[in-house]
Design a protein that fits this description.
By secondary structure, the protein is mainly α. It contains 20 helices and no strands.
Length: 440
């Protein structure tokens, strides 16, 4: 989940910041601002439903490559989409594309800092309560703090930062995973939160399931998107082209290089045992604790843990680095996921911007996206009461559980939105950040 989940959709243009205290703009007659804002909610809703699938859906590998690829789509990409939307929301919360008076800018920065600290606290509490390592809220809180100094950067600068973290950040991530440097070991050993079984600073930055290095690539990509005027058709077409190119470069190049260098398939014996870009093998184990049922905490099930002591010059390691599997943290996965996130965002915005009928028909879905923080925390609680769907379990049963998660979440969000503007936890977050107005 991202802090995007706490940003609610007021009836304002995408290029105007979403401000809980500001009065809503008049509803446009034909799409316009409403379509752009609801497009973001639709993208969040798709991320929510994909997250449900990743945690309770089928985990097995299928013999048919096409079926296997389709069934693995939500894994890794849902959380990447949330992270990208988190970067977008960070810019909107900080004022969007328009300059702000100094006082308002300070208040918004304080609000973001409070929000980030609350997400870290909530994520830590959920990790300790539910004994799981899949809670992403603390990571998102740290992402906000780390990216906040860059909110005034332009599109090009943010794009360069995103690309840098995708390439250099992935190298740093793998080096830390293999070398286990002393400073990371000491950080984890002396961090009281890590010793308690939650995600301490070392795991939030380097070795957790959603490490800031290299996940800040998603945040900066979302921040760059927020600087664009998606009301312009040419901007949407450009963004769709770039997204398709990144997806092709990430997933396609990963597949091509593995086919050329390893035509016989997996090397076996190492952490890369399993298929590279299909989302199986090591990717499945990295998500194992979240497949349903909430088992494992601390450092279990992450790629960096499996890399410890691994030979960096072995063929397995090369194939490992060439993969684009979910949560692998390679440059190929990061670039591919950013491309998919861009396509989802621009597609959602274009759909609801252009077609009033789509806005009406998809109202229950966009309602779910407008209160995704509430649905995220609720689904974590529900996972404790769902039978574990370990790899090899019945596909139909897993799909049925996923369907129920989707239906309950959408129905609740739709009914709630008929009476309230925000979800329960979104109201709580708004109240908790209100002291920022006292800043002078």
């Amino acid at each position: 989940m991202t802090d995007t989940d706490t940003v609610q959709s007021e009836r304002t243009p995408l290029r105007v910041p979403i401000d809980h205290e500001a009065p809503p703009e008049p509803r446009p007659e034909r799409g316009g601002a409403l379509g752009r804002v609801l497009g973001l909610d639709l993208a969040r809703a798709l991320a929510v439903l994909g997250m449900f699938y990743a945690h309770v859906g089928p985990m097995q590998e299928f013999e048919n490559p096409l079926v296997n690829t389709i069934m693995q789509i939500p894994h890794g990409r849902s959380s990447a989409l949330f992270a990208t939307l988190a970067g977008l929301s960070l810019v909107l919360l900080a004022g969007g594309r328009r300059p702000l008076p100094a006082l308002e800018r300070r208040q918004r920065i304080v609000k973001i800092v409070i929000r980030a600290v609350l997400l870290i606290a909530l994520g830590t509490a959920l990790t300790l309560w539910l004994h799981t390592d899949i809670v992403i809220l603390a990571f998102y809180g740290l992402f906000f703090l780390l990216a906040l100094p860059f909110v005034r950067c332009g599109v090009k600068a943010l794009a360069v930062l995103s690309a840098s973290f995708a390439v250099v950040g992935s190298v740093v991530y793998y080096w830390i995973g293999m070398a286990q440097p002393a400073f990371v070991t000491a950080l984890n050993a002396h961090d009281p939160i890590t010793r308690m079984g939650a995600d301490g600073l070392g795991r939030l930055l380097f070795t957790g399931l959603y490490p800031a290095v290299p996940w800040l690539a998603y945040i900066f990509a979302g921040m760059a998107i927020a600087k664009l005027d998606l009301s312009a058709k040419r901007v949407r077409l450009w963004m769709a082209s770039v997204g398709a190119g990144l997806a092709l470069a990430g997933y396609g190049l990963s597949w091509a290089l593995q086919q050329v260098l390893f035509p016989g398939g997996g090397m076996g014996g190492g952490p890369m045992s399993g298929s590279g870009s299909s989302g199986s093998g090591m990717a499945s184990s990295s998500m194992g604790s979240g497949s349903s049922g909430m088992s494992g905490s601390g450092s279990s099930g992450t790629w960096s843990d499996s890399l410890s002591g691994f030979d960096p010059w072995s063929p397995d390691m090369l194939q490992f680095l060439l993969s684009a599997s979910p949560h692998s943290g390679t440059a190929f996965e990061l670039l591919g996921n950013i491309g998919i996130a861009m396509l989802v965002i621009v597609g959602s915005v274009a759909l609801l911007y252009r077609f009033a009928l789509a806005r009406k028909l998809l109202t229950p879905i966009t309602a779910a996206g407008s209160m995704s923080l509430t649905l995220y925390v609720a689904h974590l609680w529900a996972l404790n009461h769902v039978p574990s769907n370990s790899e090899g379990g019945p596909v139909v049963a897993a799909l049925a559980v996923w369907g129920w998660f989707c239906v309950v979440g959408i129905v609740f969000a739709f009914v709630w939105s008929r009476f309230f503007k925000r979800g329960p936890l979104e109201y709580a977050m708004q109240w908790a950040t209100s002291p920022a107005k006292l800043v002078r």
